[in-house]
Q: What sequence folds into this?
């Protein structure tokens, strides 16, 4: 089960996030999302637990708790809606 972790400190790393959550069960993957231009954390990340029960326990225990000095939000990750391609914008037509 994949969890969304929001409100992360700029100092939180994938390793520190993994360590904070491992007491609730086996963490398969930990990812802090970074800005592609600056490499700086965007303030959120995702954790994948090996099983649903451990993930639910982590949500109950960690949601609203402090991690690296910031209160975090922990929720089940939702699939992102597909993005439309190509952005419309433009062209044609007369301007009045």
A:
């Amino acid at each position: 089960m994949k969890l969304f972790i929001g409100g992360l400190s700029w100092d939180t790393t994938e390793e520190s996030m993994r360590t904070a959550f491992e007491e609730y069960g086996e963490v398969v993957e930990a990812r802090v999302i970074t800005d592609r231009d600056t490499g700086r954390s965007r303030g959120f990340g995702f954790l994948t637990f090996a099983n649903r029960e451990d993930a639910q326990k982590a949500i109950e225990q960690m949601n609203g708790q402090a991690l690296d000095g910031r209160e975090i939000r922990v929720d089940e990750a939702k699939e992102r809606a597909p993005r439309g391609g190509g952005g419309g914008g433009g062209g044609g037509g007369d301007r009045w």
Observations:
- The helical segments are 14-21, 52-62.
